[in-house]
Design a protein that fits this description.
five-stranded mixed beta barrel; 419 residues; single chain; alpha/beta; 2 domains
Length: 419
């Protein structure tokens, strides 16, 4: 069941450019219970800490003001989830019951496609697929490349490296399912848009809250790369990855669908490898089992980037490469066990190498944290994303020259099996 509570707004911030409003609230029932308990013991609870952070998605529930009465969903904060350090406004009882529809009367059609279908927050959107971006057959993206993320935390590094390699080129972001949070919650997207490192932000399928809403990932890619004129696209989940302990039950598997969508449209497709030199979990050290699973299941080969100097993403070659590429940037801790199961089919992909500059990225003052680890604690995570951004720029240049961007797969990747 939904875990809903009544609350009063104590403090209300201004909605940011992402359409989110930060609030401070007090849960009404908890406040009354606390006062009753305090009165029983003769204490004054007015100084007790009862303030809770909350978030209002302004596009869904409107803007809140101090004193408004709300119904909030407290489930994530009460569970202590990493992406749930706040309550979510479900409805504003003071000013959110008008049911007014916000649409432009001058437009020939009104929004009639539903997102969050058959939930209490279902709402209509005008899908980008109806905005004239999809032309008659044949459908294709003209060789413009797509980078597919495993985690939202890779986005800033990929976008920064792409922009550094190709200044002024238009790179867009398609947010897919797989993340826990809506598009408007991404501070990374907000920062990249403000600095001109992203040309746009579309949300596709079950994801919502972007600058444009798409019914499908292929529709979003088509609209961005052809309708909006992006030179390349990044496609992947929003913040707060959804996960479980099962091999296939995690948000990173959305990369499989996104890569197939890009391949089906004829786009040179780059899979941004999830790699780590600092994750305490063995299954994510070196190249993550999440990425290996996607590389194994893909129906067609894709491009994968590694930092220059790294012969292989697995085994002893990876350990040697870590020292050669990152040197003193590696954390001072006992050597991690980096052997992992390697699907035989990973050697069919186009493995490329790209020079990475971790100090320059650190100086850029962009998002540089993954799972609570900073750049110096997990240089490989950011190094792999930076290598992908540079390689994405190379694929975009290949498209300019009329090349398909797909080279012969390098067989220097470690042979299958366990060492």
């Amino acid at each position: 069941m939904l875990k809903l509570r009544r609350a009063i707004v104590l403090d209300a911030g201004s909605p940011g450019s992402g359409g989110e409003q930060d609030l401070v609230i007090e849960l009404v029932d908890e406040a009354h219970e606390a006062e009753d308990r305090a009165q029983e013991r003769g204490a004054d609870v007015r100084g007790e800490q009862r303030r809770r952070p909350a978030i209002a998605d302004v596009a869904l529930v409107g803007r809140a003001e101090i004193g408004d009465e709300l119904v909030v969903n407290v489930q994530a904060r009460d569970l202590g989830l990493g992406s749930g350090g706040f309550d979510i406004v479900h409805v504003n009882l003071s000013r959110g019951l008008g049911g007014e529809e916000d649409w432009d009367l001058a437009r020939p059609t009104r929004p009639n496609v539903m997102k969050l279908n058959y939930t209490s927050l279902q709402h209509t959107v005008e899908p980008v697929e109806e905005l004239g971006s999809v032309s008659e057959y044949p459908i294709g993206l003209g060789g413009r490349p797509v980078a597919v993320l495993a985690l939202h935390g890779q986005l800033a590094a990929v976008a920064w490296a792409f922009s550094r390699a190709l200044p002024g080129r238009r790179l867009g972001y398609v947010q897919t399912a797989g993340g826990a949070l809506p598009g408007g919650h991404s501070r990374t997207v907000r920062s990249l848009r403000e600095r001109g490192l992203l040309a746009g932000h579309l949300t596709a399928g079950a994801a919502f809250g972007g600058e444009g809403e798409a019914i499908t990932t292929v529709g979003a890619l088509d609209h961005g790369l052809r309708g909006l004129g992006w030179d390349a696209a990044i496609c992947g989940p929003g913040p707060g990855i959804v996960g479980s302990s099962s091999p296939l039950g995690h948000g990173g598997m959305s990369a499989l669908d996104s890569a197939h969508a890009a391949l089906a449209l004829g786009a040179p497709t780059l899979l941004v490898a999830r790699m780590s030199s600092g994750d305490p979990r063995a299954r994510h050290r070196g190249i993550s089992h999440h990425t290996l699973t996607v590389l194994d299941l893909l129906l067609e080969p894709v491009t994968v980037a590694l930092p220059a100097g790294m012969r292989s993403p697995v085994g002893a070659d990876l350990r040697a490469g870590l020292g050669a590429v990152f040197g003193g940037a590696l954390p001072s801790r006992p050597a991690l066990e980096l052997d992992v199961e390697r699907p035989a089919r990973i050697t069919r992909h186009d493995w490329r190498r790209a020079i990475v500059d971790l100090p320059a990225y650190a100086a850029a003052d962009l998002s540089a944290e993954t799972m609570g680890r900073g750049l110096s604690e997990d240089p490989l995570f950011f190094g792999a994303a930076l290598a992908a951004g540079t390689t994405l720029a190379e694929l975009a240049e290949d498209a300019d020259r009329g090349e398909d961007g797909v080279g012969e797969a390098e067989r220097s990747v470690a042979s299958p099996g366990r060492r």
